Amino acid sequence: MSRYYRSLLMACLVLASIVVTLGAYVRLSDAGLGCPDWPGCYGKWIGVPDEAHEVVAAESAFPNAPVEVPKAWKEMIHRYAASLLGLGILGLAAAAWSRNRTEAVWTRLLVVLVLIQGALGMWTVTLLLKPVIVTLHLIGGLTVLSILLGLTWRAWVPPSTRTMPAGLAAPAWLMVAIVAFQISLGGWTSSNYAAMACPDYPQCQQAWVPEMDWSHAFVFQRELGQTASGEGLPIAALVAIHWTHRWFAMVVVACALWLAWRLIRAHAALKPYALALVGAVGLQWGIGVLNVYLQWPLGLAVLHNTGAALLLAVALVIALRLSGAGASATQTLGAVAPSKG
Predict the structure, then answer these.
(1) Which residue among the candidates 54, 59, 75, 103 is catalytic per the annotation?
(2) What is the tens place of the pLDDT at every residue in 101-131?
(3) What pTM does this model have?
(4) Among candidates 144, 132, 101, which has minimal Cα distance to 228?
(5) Would you give the distance in Å from CA 148 to the centre of its chain?
(6) Confidence of residue 159 (pLDDT cuts 50, 70, 90)
(7) Could you confirm whether 211 is annotated as catalytic?
(8) How far apart are CA 78 and CA 48, in angstroms?
């Protein structure tokens, strides 16, 4: 595998992490509609309207979207970074075209995902932050990041170091799925602006089981802040969304602790991975609780999104570590310390 491909892969992985964080920053700073059109901003492809005559022309063309220069720049910087990532992924696909079949398939899939992400980005604007579109956009970004991480693992980690004791791969991949589902719940919470629905912790609305409206909470075909019939979304629906995300977090914590315990018991070589998982889930839980007590300051809210991506990455690395093809477990671990049971 060429050095160019591996270097480009690493660059794309770093850039994808930045794009995910920028996306969270744009969403949480209420700049998702900083540009009312797509892919340009008030008709401009380079920069945003900031001169007086440009602002007048922009507001004349988009009378329902007053120019807010800081928000417009946030949105455009995110779009520029995402476009650069798209070009990098095209480069990866070209580099892998005639090489390893697995890399070729995955890089082509990345190209398709980037195109879908572009469409979701456009619909985010044209459909006025429709929650299901915003949530799918977040999931798509993390899917791109996950595939890039998997390809980076394949490119940089020798196959002989990727195989570990049997019986742990399935629980590890289950952990990845659980974290991914929790991130989806978090995206739904964020895209519905339900983060403030439970201003206390560990209770919500000063109750362990507050009043909740399940009939409207997880209806996907609706507009932001509205029910499917077009009425105002009741606060009880937002409480149900937040409460679900909060308590499923306890499932994530419990599963992470259980998997970490299994890893430590399986082999001493897996202890660093177990500690990384416990550290990542503990950090994410702590950031979430602190956000509630501090009422979701922007920087900490963005960090919560970044922490989610970090936890997903740790879970994915563990699953990849336990699922490597090649040498058998005994070949890989024969010279390592014996199992603890």
Answers:
(1) 75
(2) 789 999 999 999 999 999 999 999 999 999 9
(3) 0.91
(4) 132
(5) 13
(6) low
(7) no
(8) 13
